[in-house]
Design goal:
single chain; Alpha-Beta Plaits; alpha+beta; two-stranded antiparallel ribbon; about 25% helix
């Protein structure tokens, strides 16, 4: 077994949002041992995957993400360049974004 302390995230600072009594900015750090090298999917799933399933949260927004350069270098990138993707989609001059639809996120079945 491993020590939980080695793998848990740590909130190292909390600041109030100016002018908002019930809103705060939390600064959280996770140990790199939690993340699979070279896997963007693993990284983002670990950080934001099921966070919205926590009933204690009414609202949450990711403001910033800092990745250590040594970890960033483990990402190989796509097998071909962005131009190939843009040509396939016929989309130019704008960001290409994507997501996985999860039934737990977004509108309720009633809405």
């Amino acid at each position: 077994l491993t020590s939980l302390d080695r793998y848990k995230g740590r909130c190292y600072d909390i600041e109030p949002v100016p002018g908002e009594e019930t809103q705060f900015i939390a600064y959280v750090a996770y140990p790199l041992d939690l993340f699979e090298e070279g896997s963007v999917t693993n990284l983002f799933t670990s950080i934001v995957g099921n966070v919205f399933g926590f009933k204690a949260l009414r609202a949450l927004r990711l403001e910033d993400l800092r990745i250590p350069p040594a970890y960033s270098k483990t990402f190989q990138g796509p097998p071909h360049g962005i131009q190939v993707e843009r040509d396939k989609l016929n989309k130019y001059g704008r960001p290409l974004l994507g997501c996985t639809i999860k039934p737990k996120l977004g509108l309720s079945a009633k809405n």
